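Incident log, support desk, overnight shift.

02:14 A customer reports that sequence design results differ from what the structure should imply. Their input is reproduced verbatim below. On-call engineer (initials T.W.) acknowledged and began investigating.
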């Protein structure tokens, strides 16, 4: 009985300390994109490759005051790769936004008129574009949402459709991350 009790305590103690490490931020995007350091990986990263990636972002946060965690995934991707030796200039990243995420591309003024607060994605999108990330908004989603091009953040380019951009980028060698 004593051995069983001791074993249970050891197991519970080990589980309680599991996952307590704090996420890291940076070095590419300082305030966004938390990630964890992974030691003893079986697969190493090829650091001198160019990573051409397109993120397909359709979802958003239900709370109009929260930034979109799917856009933040781009910062996470950049941070974890930069922290593991991949130069930021070797990351050629595009983000195609459509569906419910369309609202996240609005300027502060347009967002505030529609939702009563400043766009919580603005700083994140600016930080990403400052590192070379390109943002494209589906024109079909914009039209459906009655969003005019002049309501978009200047960092966002209006495309004919998300389908068109995703196909075009993949034909240009970008790997799709849905």
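02:41 Re-run completed on a clean worker. Output:
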């Amino acid at each position: 009985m004593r051995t069983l009790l001791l074993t249970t305590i050891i197991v519970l103690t080990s589980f309680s300390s599991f996952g307590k490490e704090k996420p890291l931020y940076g070095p590419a995007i300082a305030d966004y994109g938390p990630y964890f350091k992974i030691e003893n990986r079986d697969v190493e990263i090829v650091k001198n490759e160019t990573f051409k990636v397109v993120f397909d972002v359709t979802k958003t946060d239900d709370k109009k005051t929260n930034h979109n965690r799917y856009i933040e995934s781009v910062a996470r991707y950049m941070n974890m790769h930069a922290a593991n030796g991949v130069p930021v200039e070797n990351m050629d990243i595009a983000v195609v936004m459509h569906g419910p995420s369309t609202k996240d591309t609005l300027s502060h003024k347009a967002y505030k008129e529609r939702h009563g607060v400043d766009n919580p994605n603005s700083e994140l999108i600016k930080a990403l574009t400052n590192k070379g990330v390109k943002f494209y908004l589906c024109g079909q989603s914009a039209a459906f949402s009655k969003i005019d091009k002049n309501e978009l953040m200047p960092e966002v380019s209006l495309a004919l459709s998300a389908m068109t951009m995703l196909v075009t980028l993949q034909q240009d060698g970008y790997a799709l991350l849905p």
